[in-house]
Amino acid sequence: MWRFPSVRRASSTSAETDAATRRGRIVFICGLLPVALTAILAVYRPAFFPRLDDSIYDVVMRSSIIQPPGKHVVIVDIDERSLMTLGQWPWRRDVIGRLITRLREMGASVIGLDIVFAEADRLEMPDPGLAGSRLSPDDVLAGVLREGRVLLGYGLTFDPAGRERTDCDLHPVTVAVLQPPEETGQTPYFHATGAVCSLPLLSQAAGGSGFLNAAPDVDGILRRVPVVAELDGRLYPGLALAAVRAATGSRDMTLRVLNVNASMLELDDLVVPLDGKGNLLARYRGKKGSFSHLSAADVLNNRLPAAAVRDKIALVGTTALGTREVVATPLDTLFAGVEVQATIADNLLERTFNRRSALGSVLDFQIVLVFGLAVSIVVATAGVVPGIITGALGIALLWIGSIWMLSKQGLFVSPLFPTIAVASGLALMTFAKFALERRRADAAGRQRTDVQRLMVQTLLSLTETRDAETGRHSRRTQLYARVLAQELSKNPEYSDYLTPDRIDLLSSLAPLHDIGKVGIPDHILNKPGPLTPDEMAEMKKHPALGHEVILKAEQQVGVYDDATLAMAKDIVYTHHERWDGTGYPQGLQGEHIPIPGRVMAIVDVYDAAVTRTLYRRTMSHDDTVKFIMAGKGTHFDPGVVDAFVSASAVLEHVSHEGNH
């Protein structure tokens, strides 16, 4: 006998454990689904996601520690002051020649011109500075270029239909391209169809050249700059790469393809990380003006010390308003083209680059799975709040780690896909957890309702055991109470209290109103005639006896402030109170009587009047209605009487049904 309770408790505990395990599995699966979907998106990357990932890169870059530029690149700026000093742009070519000569005298290691001289100088007259000379300004500039250490810029064109090119001397470079066998179908650089270059006279005189192309991404932000490109089957360097090669004396170049998304340019012992199209992810040194800018006017007028240029790459370009070409970068919206070339040259010289992992989407896939699965496990096992905390900490660490790695290592690991996976997983798991808990709560509520019904039926059966008529009376009042409460709920004064749930509860508890009669002696309870004053006094104890039964049950079970038991006590203890205060057992008056008690007062009298009882002969329905109306404001709540009258036809029908 002692083992049966233990077995039942063990069985119940086991069932609860199994149910909790099932709920945990469902929550885990709900977290796994968005993680798996995000992992797939990280690999295949629909068109929208690369653009969003670029925006994330911008945020991380702006949040990272920006390293200042080195001291090996200087910009010779044709600025507003230079134009005010030397006249409007473009200047005479011989003036450009004097600027180059002055930079060479100051010891510049290489001079790169971010300028294209595509047409002959508009002033075809002898140089007034050369007495008796018949040289044109272009001839003078060509002569200066032949003295060496000068690189010209040009622009590549990418017209799909092709175009007729002028004859350009573009100075190609020899690059050994090494590709894995499986990657031979795609070339790791852009294919140009033409070029816009300087005059042949100048191109042939220059010792080298490089293209100036740097196209922004689709959102208008310049993040990547090509360092090599192909034209007519030959490879050409960008101006920054050409300048660094000339300054360092590098010759051997190898382009090693890693996969479709990544390659490496090996320049002697320098390894430059590139993407699958020969682009370098620019590591900007700050906003515009971060590099040392020397005014061209100061250079020409000998106002600067030679140390300002000595052994440096001098990039000549225009930043004056109306002459400059500007682009937007992650750090600035007005970044001059010559500053882009300076940035790439500085990245190469300082050997500091921004790059993405060669693993690319594979790395994103792995990070998504690790973070997503970890958070899903925490939510499924520990709950939503620990899962949210874990997810938030994980995402924060991932973003902080991404910023740190870009700052210190130049490696960008995108937090985009892990953030999407964790956020969407948490959202779906939270919803699933809520839905499951709501379902469990509903099931518990239904179980509790069933227990309440069992309790009511058990107590009602107890009263029927003592008195069959009392039991039948209690069952009929259940029907009457529902009809009357529903009608009463239409009254604005009662609608807030008589919600559908409370009406159901009131109806289910109505049969308990006479539960206290189990404590009344049989000779009084079953007496066929009128009661004596002493017997009536004993009978009037049944509300208090019923109330005491419920109170003891509360104390023994340890349940307090329960809405069901509270209404049960109101019904049992106050259904014999009168509106004028002359009722029993407490003598409550008016609105001090709980609404369930006021409803049960009419229901109790109506059933007693229309049904044969031990105490009096039955009354007709109409006479009973008149009797109850006569008690309006004295015996009964006027509002409840009005509802009773409105529902009297329905009550009559229910009365006939209940008695057959």
Oligomeric state, counting identical vs distinct chains: single chain
What is the distance, rounded to the nearest whole angstrom, between the alpha carbons of the first and last residues?
A: 46 Å
Regions with little confidence, pLDDT below 50 for 5+ residues:
1-12
- Average residue pLDDT: 86
Structural class by sheet pairing and helices? alpha/beta
The radius of gyration computed from the alpha-carbon positions, rounded to a whole number of angstroms, is 47 Å
Helix count?
Answer: 23
How is the biggest beta sheet arranged? 7 strands, mixed
Percent helix range: 40-55%
Give the total of beta strands.
20
| Beta fraction | 5-15%
Mass-distribution shape: rod-shaped
Explain the layout of strands and helices:
Blueprint: H1 3-44, H2 48-63, E1 73-78, H3 80-86, H4 93-105, E2 110-113, H5 137-146, E3 150-157, E4 176-178, E5 190-192, E6 194-196, H6 200-205, E7 208-211, E8 224-226, E9 228-231, E10 234-237, H7 239-248, E11 253-259, E12 262-267, E13 270-275, E14 279-281, E15 292-295, H8 296-300, E16 313-318, E17 326-327, E18 335-336, H9 337-350, E19 355-356, H10 361-382, H11 384-408, E20 411-412, H12 416-466, H13 468-488, H14 492-495, H15 500-509, H16 522-525, H17 533-539, H18 542-557, H19 563-574, H20 595-610, H21 621-630, H22 638-646, H23 648-658
Parallel strand pairs: 1-15, 1-16, 2-3, 2-16, 3-7, 4-11, 5-9, 19-20
Antiparallel strand pairs: 3-6, 8-14, 9-10, 11-12, 12-13, 17-18
Helix pairs in contact: 1-10, 1-12, 4-5, 7-9, 10-11, 10-12, 11-12, 12-13, 13-15, 13-20, 13-22, 13-23, 18-19, 19-20, 20-21
